[in-house]
């Protein structure tokens, strides 16, 4: 059973797509495994001014990417890097244990995208 927050983010995903001139990009999982999350970030003056995602997988995968973009947008990089899978899960009303991996994929994608933006 999905929480109302997961259902909302699945049916109405926020910030879906990609940023063509992204400063940070990452992909976690793979389409071959049936679970993939791509994240792109636009960063100006050490602040995430835009975040977009593409996800392949179940409703929880899509919801995790969507809520991640909301959590990270407008944050300083120094704060964004500290967003955890637990916070992502919490923002989705809590995830069942067998779905927690999607929040972990989102956290990993965020940290990898931020790392890729550092030049």
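-> sequence recovered:
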């Amino acid at each position: 059973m999905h929480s109302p927050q997961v259902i909302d983010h699945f049916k109405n995903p926020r910030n879906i797509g990609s940023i063509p001139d992204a400063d940070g990009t990452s992909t976690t999982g793979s389409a071959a495994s049936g679970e993939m999350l791509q994240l792109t970030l636009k960063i100006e003056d050490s602040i995430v001014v835009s975040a977009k995602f593409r996800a392949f997988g179940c409703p929880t995968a899509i919801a995790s990417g969507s809520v991640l973009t909301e959590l990270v947008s407008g944050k300083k990089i120094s704060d964004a890097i500290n967003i955890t899978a637990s916070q992502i899960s919490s923002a989705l009303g809590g995830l069942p244990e067998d779905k927690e991996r999607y929040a972990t994929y989102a956290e990993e994608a965020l940290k990898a995208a931020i790392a890729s933006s550092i030049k």
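The chain has a mean pLDDT of 95.
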